[in-house]
Recover the amino acids of this structure.
């Protein structure tokens, strides 16, 4: 065993000396390779992290939400619908929700405004999300005025800022009392934005949605499972689109790597010829070339992956925030929980490391099985 | 007496050590993921979602169909005027929710 290890170390010594002879070319390749793995790994890890975050955070989302549709569009729901919904067998509780959007021209940001009766807020008090507080530089006790639908501004006092840890859910939230909500948006008392149903047996949620659609034909029930599926689709789609964009980069890299690895130069062929002439066996040459491919591609893979990990889970994912942000002013400052999918890592490894090793081995094998004399002559 | 010269570092030793460090760090990322999976609690966030009946992540707040993709209707991205095209940049990153898209034949 020690002899075998020593033999491999001599092969690595030789390989590294050969790589250092073409320092600039190999370092450039290593850098591009690392960058490529970094980009792919970042997209994979980000999508995986967000997908898990959505699945965990939204597992307590309402079991069924009922919207009213008018001419195919979401409309306000009459309070009388709540009674009809409560009469559906299996429905434990039906309550109306009041929420909407408010565009703040001062900072060009959209807020999600929501009535929170459970918080028992006074009519002139609001609770705000952490990102909103950051953008508007607001703290507890500060005044904040919103323009009412009727025209005049309504002055509120910030009673609290929502937990920073829940920013992924509440970055743009503005919570207020039901009365304030209705005053702000000039909403009649018998209307709600939508209704939330609590179901006695969660396995019956789909059946209750069907019954709701029958009892209220202009309603649209949305199940929690559909909400969760929406986020799965969103992140799959985004991953797919980014991979499509990165695909051209991968192709360019594969051409570069193939050209570099597969097209042995006359000098490299002569080198193999000399090695054969001084007694190296074909197996030794292949082992040497295998080490070359392995050292370069595995180092690039690990370095790229580790950089992506650090950037996403310890560096605040700053690189990808513009992509997610779009034109939005409010963006949550969140810490993703690292999530690893071994299958995805193996696929990434197979896509990036294997082709390079194959591209290194095949031409060397061809040169190594040729006659040393012919190989030395190129 | 001359001091014994330090042994010269072999290139293979340096390369293998570097590779070992990278592999160790890679192993640590797997351990961190496993550890954080069990220790990071989302109790506060989940309680907030339960209390307010929150349905979506506030990840992209620029348009209502990207702020609440699960609550959107088919017309939301094209709502501005007849024949209007969807124009927010992140709209291209948000497909319509599966429950609004037709089932495959």
């Amino acid at each position: 065993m020690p002899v075998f290890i020593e033999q491999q170390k001599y092969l690595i010594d030789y390989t590294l000396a050969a790589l250092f002879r073409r320092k600039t070319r190999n370092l450039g390749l290593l850098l591009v390779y690392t960058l490529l793995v970094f980009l792919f790994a970042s997209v994979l890890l980000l999508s995986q992290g967000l997908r898990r975050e959505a699945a965990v955070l939204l597992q307590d989302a309402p079991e069924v939400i009922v919207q009213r549709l008018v001419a195919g569009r979401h409309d306000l729901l009459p309070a009388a619908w709540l009674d009809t919904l409560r009469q559906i067998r299996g429905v434990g509780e039906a309550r109306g929700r009041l929420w909407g959007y408010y565009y703040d021209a001062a900072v060009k940001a959209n807020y999600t405004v929501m009535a929170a009766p459970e918080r028992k807020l006074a009519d002139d008090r609001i609770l705000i999300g952490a990102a909103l507080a950051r953008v508007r530089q607001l703290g507890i006790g500060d005044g904040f005025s919103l323009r009412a639908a009727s025209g005049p501004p309504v002055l509120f006092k910030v009673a609290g800022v929502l937990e920073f840890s829940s920013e992924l859910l509440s970055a743009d939230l503005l919570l207020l009392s039901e009365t304030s909500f209705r005053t702000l948006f000039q909403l009649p008392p018998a209307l709600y934005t939508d209704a939330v149903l609590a179901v006695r047996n969660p396995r019956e949620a789909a059946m209750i949605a069907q019954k709701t659609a029958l009892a209220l034909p202009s309603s649209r029930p949305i199940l929690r499972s559909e909400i969760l599926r929406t986020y799965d689709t969103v992140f799959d789609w985004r991953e797919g689109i980014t991979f499509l964009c990165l695909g051209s980069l991968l192709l360019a890299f594969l051409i570069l790597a193939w050209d570099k690895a597969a097209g042995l130069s006359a000098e490299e062929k002569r080198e193999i010829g000399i090695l054969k002439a001084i007694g190296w066996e074909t197996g030794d040459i292949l082992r040497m070339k295998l080490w070359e491919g392995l050292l370069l591609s595995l180092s690039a893979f690990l370095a790229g992956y580790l950089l992506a990990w650090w950037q996403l889970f310890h560096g605040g994912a700053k690189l990808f925030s513009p992509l997610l942000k779009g034109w939005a002013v409010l963006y949550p400052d969140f810490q993703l929980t690292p999530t690893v999918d071994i299958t995805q890592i193996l696929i990434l490894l197979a896509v990036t490391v294997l082709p390079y090793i194959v591209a290194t081995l095949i031409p060397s094998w061809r040169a190594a099985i040729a006659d040393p004399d012919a190989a030395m002559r190129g | 007496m001359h001091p014994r010269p330090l042994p010269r570092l072999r290139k293979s030793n340096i390369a293998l050590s570097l590779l070992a460090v990278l592999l160790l760090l890679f192993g640590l990322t797997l351990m961190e993921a496993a550890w954080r999976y069990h220790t990071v609690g989302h109790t506060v966030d989940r309680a907030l979602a339960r209390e307010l009946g929150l349905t979506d992540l506030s990840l992209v707040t620029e348009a209502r169909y990207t702020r609440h993709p699960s609550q959107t209707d088919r017309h939301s991205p094209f709502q501005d005027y007849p024949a209007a095209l969807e124009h927010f940049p992140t709209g291209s990153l948000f497909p319509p929710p599966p429950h609004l898209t037709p089932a495959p034949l």
Summary: Chain B has three helices and no strands. The two ends of chain B are 89 Å apart (CA to CA). Residues 13 and 19 of chain B are 10 Å apart (CA to CA).
